[in-house]
Design goal:
The chain is of the alpha+beta class and 209 residues long. It has one domain: Beta Polymerase, domain 2. 54% of the residues lie in helices and 21% in strands. It contains seven helices and five strands, in the order H-E-H-H-E-H-E-E-E-H-H-H. It has a five-stranded mixed sheet with strand order 1-2-5-4-3. Bound molecules: ligand 0O2.
Length: 209
């Protein structure tokens, strides 16, 4: 297995999708509209993680491309829960890739407390040998959901996937607190957005003065 050759087109997928998703944010900003996207990150799954997931799920090397959906991974962070569904709507109407699966871990969170909306796409990437259709996973979540998931991921790494029960219980409580925070912020969303618009206008007039 030549990993460099295998992963190169995935790296291109991540780079291209980052540009496209950040482009959505830019278009909202240029139209002085509230952007449903706060920021975007992307990564190619590290070889060690690919091997571990393939081992756990009994996936042979030749089947990785077909069965491992998140070798190319994008993450879209949104200010509010509603924005997640706006982003999903924008993805559904695009013509540069096909959505092949959606996983809603927001209305039904995972046992761990994890919340996010996952969209699995098939993305056509141009290579010197022609077009390759590769899978990529776009995880869409609020800033609060991301805060929780990042911390839980670190703990999972620390405890090699066996987080002690007491910490698991705390994590579940923290997931609920993060969800409540999202709910409360949604209730005062208009106030927050008006304040941000005033702040933006003030900054704009100061830079043009
Ligand atoms: P990493 O290190 O982030 O790459 P499925 O076969 O559909 O049941 P699969 O393929 O694991 O399961 O898909 P799923 O459940 O949509 O999860 C894919 C990714 O979502 C994970 O990738 C994580 O990034 C994230 N995720 C899912 N569940 C959790 C969770 O409980 N906590 C956190 N922090 N992240 C989660 P990897 O490969 O597991 O990890």
């Amino acid at each position: 297995m030549n990993w460099e050759t295998f992963l190169a087109p995935y790296s291109q997928v991540v780079d291209e999708l980052k540009v496209k998703l950040k482009g959505i944010r830019g278009q909202y900003e240029n139209s002085s509209m509230h952007s449903p996207i706060e920021f975007v990150t992307g990564r190619v799954k590290p070889i060690k993680s690919i091997l571990a997931k393939a081992r756990n799920r009994n996936i042979a090397y030749y089947a990785l491309e077909e069965q491992l959906q998140d070798i190319a991974g994008l993450r879209v962070m949104c200010p509010f829960v509603d924005d997640i569904y706006t982003v999903v709507g924008l993805l559904r109407q695009r013509e540069d890739f096909n959505i092949i699966e959606e996983k809603d871990y927001i209305t039904k969170n995972k046992e761990s407390g994890y919340r996010s909306y996952h969209v699995i796409i098939e993305y056509p990437v141009e290579t010197i040998k022609g077009v390759k259709h590769l899978l990529a996973e776009i995880q869409i979540r609020t800033l609060a959901m991301n805060f929780w998931a990042t911390n839980e991921h670190s703990l999972n790494y620390k405890y090699s996937g066996q987080i002690p029960e007491e910490i698991q219980t705390r994590l579940k409580k923290a997931a609920e607190a993060a969800f409540l925070l999202d709910e409360e912020m949604s209730k005062i969303r208009n106030e927050i957005q008006e304040a941000q618009a005033v702040f933006r206008n003030k900054n704009d007039s100061e830079t043009t003065d």
